[in-house]
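Both lines are given unchanged directly below:

***
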Amino acid sequence: MTKQLQAAMAAILVLGTVSMQAQTSTTPKKSTHKRVAKKKATESATERQIRELREQMQSQQAQIDSLKEQNADKDAKLATASQDAQAANTAAAQAQSQAAGVSSSVQANTDAVNTLNSTVTDLKTKNADLVQTVSDTKKDLTKQIDEPLALHYKGVKITPVAFFAAESVYRQRSLNSDINTPFNSTPYPGAAQAHTSEFNFSGRQSRLGGLFEGNTGPFKLSGYFEADFLSAGVTSNDNQSNSYTLRQRQIWGQIATQKGFALTGGQMWSLVTETKKGTDNRTENLPMTIDAQYHVGFSWERQPGVRIQQRLGMATVAVALENTQNIFSASNANSNFFFGNAGTGGGLYNSTANYSNNVAPDVIVKAAFDPKIGHYEIGGLARFFRDRYYPGVTTVPTTGATGAANDTKTGGGFFANARVPVTRFADVGVHVLVGTGVGRYGTATLPDTTVHPDGTLATIKADQGLFSLELHPNKKLDLFGYAGGEYAQRTAFLNLTGPNAGKLTGYGPRTANNTGCGTELPPTGATGYNPAVPANCTGATRAVIEGTGGFTYRFYSSPKYGKLQYAMQYSYLTRNAWSGVGGAPKGTNNMVFTGIRYYIP
């Protein structure tokens, strides 16, 4: 029931109450006929109100009926709307389900799009990297073609090695020598050449070489050769076109495994020579001198041999068998032995040089250590000397050689090297070699053996030592200083038979005649090439000592175009003899070297 219907019902109740009150009023009743007449004549106010109320009620009833109809219509519409709402809810549920499906599909699409975008971004990055890689590869290939670090022949990599030198040497006392110094030939004061100097230009130390490498994977094959022009043929001279011959310095082959084992054979630096890394070939630590004979006290050889080495962590151990020769010196020797002869041309030896008849190669062992700081080496060598001697024969024999026999003597020694970077700008090195029969391994080439009066050989004790100081103030400049010495011990024996009976036989005997070592004599011929040598001057060398200072300055250095450098060296040399009759002579020399070199990259 609506509020309007309730208001209409309330109004009807009010009107009914008023009508009942009017009918029960205490007012005296008039006669009926008068009342009817009056009523007909006029309508009272109450009647009018009742009539109006009735009319209002009828109007309100009509409105109520209309409202009922409207409510019924609304109820019908509400029912329809409810059904529509239910249908709408169903449709909404279906739509929501579809929307959820669509949302899931959209999310999947979004994820797919994001993944695709990420993939596209990665592809763009990879493409950019690929473009850069292609560009870098192209540059590298172009550089390798235009500026190859090595040449390639089939599977072999070939690295050229070369420098071109213009050098000079000044010596206060002439040795008639090129850029290399025969230290043990320094003249005593009595020699005519001790009073003349020499100055020579040279390009003969210029070097050619190449490294050949074939890497098979399990092992690496290498071959190396190196040559210069510090040798002379029968037509070589300094008169016009000097035509000095190409000299074999090194030529060897090697097989090396990835586990540190290497086998090397051919002509190479001796295992005695100090190296910079392990015992590896081509890492030899040579003095920085211009002098091609290096420096007194430096122990080395370049000779044919076979070397086996094995790397064991920071250590490397090696053993080598190397070709040998015997450097011999003796005074007052008898003519009752021999150990070699001049070379045979048919055997491709130099017929003007002497060669010893070797019984066995030199045996050298070495261990090298490369900790975090410095490089250290320790080793030893064994040598074997054989001669054929003739007992009882003291002069040139005129009868048969009864009792002739061969005799073999052994020699050997111990050596050690240490090189330490005391700062980033300075390296200090120490080398020593001591033993018997090891003079040949010193750069002054003091003798290995002498001879007993009976014709058997005797080894000579020898010591060699070198102190090095190398400074590197900057990348362009190196400063170097060396002090070295070599010593050969007096080794003599009393001779009891033959023309030298009562004299000492051997090396540096005290009875040697040194009386003429300080007396200059006139030339021995009229050709201009016959300076006199001292008479009565045995002068067996006791020690050779040298001190050197110098620098190397690199004007230009480029991995692409090579290196141009200038070097200068000053050396002071002394040669001291064993004392004999007449004293102990001494020879000195001041030497200045200069050199300019261009190294290929």
